[in-house]
Amino acid sequence: MTGTAVYLYGVARGLDPAALGGTSGVSGAAVRGVVAGGLTALVSTVRLDDYGEAALRANLENLAWLEETARAHHDVVDRAAHAAPTAPVRIATLYRDDARVAEILATQRDRFGEVLDGIAGRSEWGVKVYASPEPPAEPAGTGPGGGLAPRTEPPTGSQFPPPGSGTAYLRRRQDEHRRREDAGRRMAERAAGLHAELAEHAIASRHHPPQDPRLSGREGTQILNVAYLLDEEREAAFLAATRAASGHIEGVELEVTGPWPPYSFIDADVTPDTAP
């Protein structure tokens, strides 16, 4: 390799080259199209100082760099996807030159064709559902206003708890454990019911792990994190269903995002020439 490489964002079919005019990608590099096999690869030239194997290993640990790169990657894919069916590839997929990219398009034409057939006229929508934080159980010995409850018996003067208090404490702990388990089951049932309702409008869905609360910034527990692949004509009905759910499912909050390029539904990927 020389001091540069070719960064691949995604592969489109039937893309008008004018749709990429003036588009900037990662590190501010100009975006261009490499055409082969009836497909167009969206690429930029980048420096190996930033995108070589050693540099990538370090940069991918830098959250600010990663966020900036991911945003630029998405912006390129999103612009192309508004003009033609576009299959995104994972971030930091690199090749040695345009000729190598053209070779990939030619040898994997059928594979990309199947992927593009599956996403044409469709987009991805994300739904995250958060269960509202439950108020803490009222501690034993407190009254309705939160203060000490009035005593019904005079103190015994002993520093030891009265007989049976240990059993009562264990019973309270068991009751609290059961209460939390019951609440968890109710939330899981609500999440499953909502997903089943939303999935009726979708071509496909993908469950993702719950998002780290430090990233979501939410206090509630995330009980659903799903991507839905929708035909364009089904989007209005899908969004109406999410709005209805927000109104009739008690104790949950929905966050709906989209439309996105179908990142969660690209099962085929390509092997880069260099990887972190």
Model description:
The chain is an alpha+beta fold and 276 residues long. It folds into 2 domains: 4-120; 121-136 and 176-261, Alpha-Beta Plaits (2-Layer Sandwich), CATH 3.30.70. 38% of the residues lie in helices and 25% in strands. It has 8 helices and 8 strands. The protein has helices at 48-51, 53-59, 63-81, 98-107, 109-119, 165-199, 213-216, 235-248, and strands at 4-13, 32-36, 39-47, 86-95, 122-131, 204-207, 221-231, 252-260. A hairpin with a 2-residue loop joins strand 2 (32-36) and strand 3. It is elongated and about 80 Å long. Mean pLDDT is 81; it is low at 135-156.
Index terms:
single chain, alpha+beta, Alpha-Beta Plaits, four-stranded antiparallel sheet, elongated
Largest sheet: 4 strands, antiparallel
Low-confidence stretches: 135-156
Instruction: Characterize the overall form.
Output: elongated
**What's the order of the H and E elements?**
EEEHHHEHHEHEHEHE
Q: Tell me the number of strands.
A: 8
- Beta-strand percentage? 15-25%
Please estimate the helix content: 25-40%
| Average residue pLDDT | 81
Overall structural class, as computed from helix and strand content, comes to alpha+beta
The radius of gyration computed from the alpha-carbon positions, rounded to a whole number of angstroms, is 27 Å
Number of domains: 2
Spatial order of the strands in the main sheet?
A: 2-3-1-4
Number of helices: 8
Q: N- to C-terminal separation?
A: 15 Å
Condensed summary:
With about 280 residues, the protein is an alpha+beta fold. It is built from eight helices and eight strands, in the order E-E-E-H-H-H-E-H-H-E-H-E-H-E-H-E. It folds into two domains: about 120 residues; about 100 residues, 2-Layer Sandwich (Alpha-Beta Plaits).
